[in-house]
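forwarding from the other thread:

> can someone predict this with adenosine-5'-triphosphate?

sure thing
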Amino acid sequence: MSTLVHCQHLSHRYGSKQVLNDISFNIEAGAPVALVGPNGAGKTTLFSLMSGFILPSEGRIEILGQPPGSMAVKNQMQVLPQDAQLDPAFNVGEQLKLYCRLQGMSPKQQQSETERVLELVSMQDSIKAKPTALSHGMRKRVAIAQALIGAPKLVLLDEATAGLDPLHARQIRELIQQLSTDITFLLSSHDLHELERLCDQVLLLEHGQLREHRIQTQTNNVRQLTLVLAKKDPQIEQKISQLTGVTEVRSLSATEILISFDTDIAADLPVTLMAVCFEQQWPFKQLTSGASLETVLFTQ
Ligand SMILES: Nc1ncnc2c1ncn2[C@@H]1O[C@H](COP(=O)(O)OP(=O)(O)OP(=O)(O)O)[C@@H](O)[C@H]1O
């Protein structure tokens, strides 16, 4: 595995305002990585530091072993800012060709690269369209195509699906997933749910501090269930922990219980659990497979 981003003891202040405080993490080539945190947590600041737009107050970042923004990194990493706009005066093909030209491509390469990236985002039919003739989701796809020019190894997308309706947001997530065989994406969002199915590694920024979480692929024989009741009490948890095959019971909130179980011993635990809820007249609301990322991050 190759290390794309190496960040050590990074801090950043705007004047006296401390935004990032001694954060360290690595990003290896592979599945998309999520950068999540509430509004104002410092996600865009971290992107700006990684792009070399601003310098850290303290600490060090290396992108592919090089300083951010250096020539050696230029074509290997692309950044799509949250508010990236297409120029309404030029058609899609003209704009993308300009970016190809800025990467030093010949006119012939500019044409073939523009066609290649538009095809990747299924927008090849819009090569001659003006941005004003495209929907918001289509413009976003074109902006993503622009970030794919030159086949970068690392692509930073700031709020890639912000402002998109659920259908278009899902299409963008699917697109990122498809492209992830060749490109490592760092995706920022303030919405944890949106990234949880896509990413294995989550960087959570809160109050300038970073918490890192790696989503464990569930082992072959251990599965998790989240049981939601209208109201729960400790006896319910105790009773569940005594069921055959249950390996761990964790209280998540006043109404939620996370249950781990061994499928070799109790493959039908979901059915058993439903039956017990019914027999015991527990105020059942919902039983879902797995645990949400929000649960994992905020109930440790
Ligand atoms: N150029 C700047 N000068 C002063 N303060 C800034 C500057 N840029 C950002 N900040 C402050 O730094 C903090 C982090 O901002 P940043 O934009 O990095 O957060 P974010 O996590 O990207 O937020 P959002 O989810 O709202 O986009 C905020 O409190 C913001 O007001």
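The domain at 3-214 is CATH 3.40.50.300 (Rossmann fold). thats all i got for now
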